[in-house]
Amino acid sequence: VDVKSLFLLFFPLQVLLLACAEDLECVPGFQQKVFYIEKPFQFTADQLVLNLKFDDCKGNNKLNFEVSNPDFTVDIDGSLVALKNVSEAGRALFVHARSEHAEDMAEIFILEANEKRGALKEILKLEGNLGIPRQKRAILATPILIPENQRPPFPRLVGKVIRSEGTEGVKFRLSGKGVDQDPKGIFRINEMNGDVSVTRTLDREAIANYELEVEVVDLNGKTIDGPVRLDVSVIDQNDNRPMFKEGPYVGHVMEGSATGTTVMRMTAFDADDASTDNALLRYNILKQTPTKPSPNMFYIDPEKGDIVTVVSPALLDRETMESPKYELVIEAKDMGGMDVGLTGTATATILIDDKNDHPPEFTKKEFQATVKEGVTGVIVNLTVGDRDDPATGAWRAVYSIINGNPGQSFEIHTNPQTNEGMLSVVKPLDYEISAFHTLLIKVENEDPLIPDIAYGPSSTATVQITVEDVNEGPVFHPNPMAVTKQENIPVGSVVLTVNATDPDTLQHQTIRYSVHKDPAGWLEINPTNGTVGTTAVLDRESPFVQNNVYTALFLAIDSGNPPATGTGTLHITLEDVNDNVPSLYPTLAKVCDDAKDLRVVVLGASDKDLHPNTDPFKFELSKQSGPEKLWRINRLNNTHAQVILLQNLKKANYNIPISVTDSGKPPLTNTTELRLQVCTCKKSRMDCSATDALHISLTLILLSLLSLFCKSFA
To answer: What range does the record give for the signal peptide (predicted)?
Structure first.
């Protein structure tokens, strides 16, 4: 379907519309409001585009035309022509006509070749909206187009509704959003003649379309015709500047990137109609800071907003740049970038990212360090230079010792602030073994170098280390020292002879010994030959002995100036002998004088010695005096026995002698008196207050009486 075919299809509709209009009455405005034209290769200056017909029905006095695109104009006879050669006119043109008595808007759509079929659909859709009279349709309500941002005075006539059967005795009624629905009162209709007016300035970005309904009612308000849909479209004006809403805009590009590398995309938003040039944006770089090494380091795609590099990879060298950060002022202009377009700006920050194209290099080939033997810690800081970005792994150094450290006596770590290599001694050095050490150190980066760059000779360095001799303290062999002795050995017994040597073999010094720490005061040492002897009895059960081990410290002091001291530890493991009698617990028991259960108490025994000098224990009662036995003792196990009364006793205190014997060789026996209180018990309360007097056995009473009897005969 070509444009000619579209015209032939649309022409009958025009004829029908005009015929209906003639039958009715003159309608002020454009006789055709919507046009479709095929986009030419270019619009030629002064060439006729099409003819527009405007009639205000009153002679077109003071008629004036305005075109949305300033490259076009409309002559007084309605001829639309181009003022110059125009290759890009946008998607649509809007022509606003105004006379002394009326004004109207015409819309010209510019179609690509592949849009013709869609244009036909639009025409057919338009037919339904034009209010073309159909069968039994008496109201003609053509769509109304109103430019936004119109200036006062208001109300302003914008359209007209026509009734084919006349208006006598009837009234027009308008309703919908913008009339009797929020926002209310924007539109109104003359009840008598159907003139439609707008009462205020419209904003397309707030509401772009209004769908109203018009009907004809009698004088009593009863609907006669309708309702018929009346579409009001707000025509966009270029009243919104492009805005960059997604900032801040920060992009990154690797140094040395190829020409044409995309850095980032910047897009702006325009609130105007996206189908018009009012929102057709074009992008441009207004300013670049800094301007070196080239004032045009980047280019922005005018349509997409893509920012790309335009300099050679050699110029995109971070290490030679004045600054690795560039700021671009980006402008977005609507109207397709034309001079009349509105603009908005934003700043794009582009960071040139570092890549590892510079290996670290030592500041000198050889470093010197001096350390005293026996000392650990950092001995020298190795310095390197690297031209890469200090905030990246392309700058951070990693050091390693590649030769001269067979004993792993040295380690090297990176100082994160200075990037220096901190060489440390981690195992004390011995001057007598080696007075000099030579290390070969290598430095690399955390990140790998780029393929065409390699580490060179400057990435290795030598460290010469001199070890200084110091007077070292004597060393005991072995240390700690261990010996096993039986406790209670005679005073003056030899425990062992300690042995200490001086590491300073070249100084030929003598060693003397002394006691440093002897918690119990049991030991002495010969200052010359190191023989350790006892000065007191060794007691395994002493609180100074832990887990059968007694610990003492000794000093070995050389004859240096000043003298150096070494400390040796002696652990004496003490073997147990049966030198402690067992003990009995508890030693007090209470029982009621009328008790039914005569099992008085369970006794236990303990011994400070070790097995086999402890349990099993043997429990025995000392021989009971008197005519009858009052109690007995039963063994329960190896460590416990039970005392049982053989009968109830009177309220009193009783002492029961009990002997306990351990299993040592020879065994040791201990006799302990168990104090037994026989108390009065009433109502679950035990009263032992009258038992303080000791109960005397019948035998003792008889002996006392016999003594008195003998004295009377003396």
So the answer is: 1-21
CATH node for 29-111:
2.60.40.60
In this prediction, residue 690 carries a pLDDT of 57
- Please list, residue by residue across 638-651, b when 16 or more beta carbons sit within 10 angstroms of its beta carbon and e when fewer do: ebebebebeeebeb
CATH fourth-level superfamily of 475-575: Cadherins (2.60.40.60)
Question: For the residues of 447-490, what is the DSSP string, one character each?
Answer: SPPPTT----GGGEEEEEEEEEP--PPPEESSSSEEEEEETTPP
Q: Does residue 222 carry a pLDDT above 70? A: yes
And the tokens for 357?
């194209």
Torsions phi, psi for 200 (to 5 deg): -155, 175
Rama region for 194: left / alpha / beta (φ>0; ψ in -120 to 50; rest):
left
Question: In this structure, which topology does domain 583-683 adopt according to CATH?
Answer: Immunoglobulin-like (2.60.40)
Question: Do 67 and 79 meet the contact criterion of CB atoms below 8 Å apart?
Answer: no
pLDDT band at 125 (very low <50, low <70, confident <90, very high): very low
> CA-CA distance, 394 to 412, in Å (whole number)?
19
Query: What mean pLDDT, rounded, does the chain reach?
Result: 87
Distance CA 403, CA 419 (A): 22
SS3 714: coil
- What is the C-alpha to C-alpha distance for residues 513 and 644, in angstroms, rounded to an integer? 63
Same fold, 243-353 and 475-575: yes
Closest residue by Cα to residue 381 from 365, 373, 369 = 369
The per-residue pLDDT for range 573-623, each reduced to its tens digit, is 998 888 889 999 999 999 998 888 889 899 999 999 889 999 999 999 887
With contact defined as beta carbons under 8 Å apart, do 273 and 317 qualify?
no
pLDDT above 70 (res 138)? yes
688's tokens:
């032992």
Cβ pair 386, 361 in contact under 8 A: yes
* Better pLDDT: 623 or 628: 623
Q: 3-state SS of the chain: helix, strand, coil percent to 5?
A: 10, 45, 50
Give percent above pLDDT 70 in the chain: 89
How many angstroms separate the CA atoms of 344 and 240, rounded? 10
Tens of pLDDT, residues 198-217: 999 999 999 999 999 999 99
Region 182-186: what's the mean pLDDT?
95
pLDDT value of position 626: 56
Within its chain, how far is the Cα of 382 from the centroid?
35
**Whose CA is closest to 535, among 485, 493, 577?**
493
The class level of CATH for 140-235 reads mainly beta
Beta-carbon-side half-sphere exposure of residue 115 (alpha carbons within 13 Å)? 12
Please report, for the chain, the start and end positions of each structural domain, with discontinuous segments joined by +.
29-111, 140-235, 243-353, 361-455, 475-575, 583-683
CB 617 within 8 A of CB 582: yes
Place of tokens 């002696």: 570
Range 243-353 classified under CATH 2.60.40.60: yes
Q: Which pair of tokens denotes residue 620?
A: 């025995």
Q: Read off the amino acid at residue 36.
A: Y
Mean pLDDT check: name the lowest of 38-42, 342-346, 392-396: 38-42
Mean pLDDT of the region 1-26: 43
Please, which pLDDT band fits residue 21 given cuts at 50, 70 and 90?
very low
User: In the CATH hierarchy, which fold is given to the domain comprising 361-455?
Assistant: Immunoglobulin-like (2.60.40)
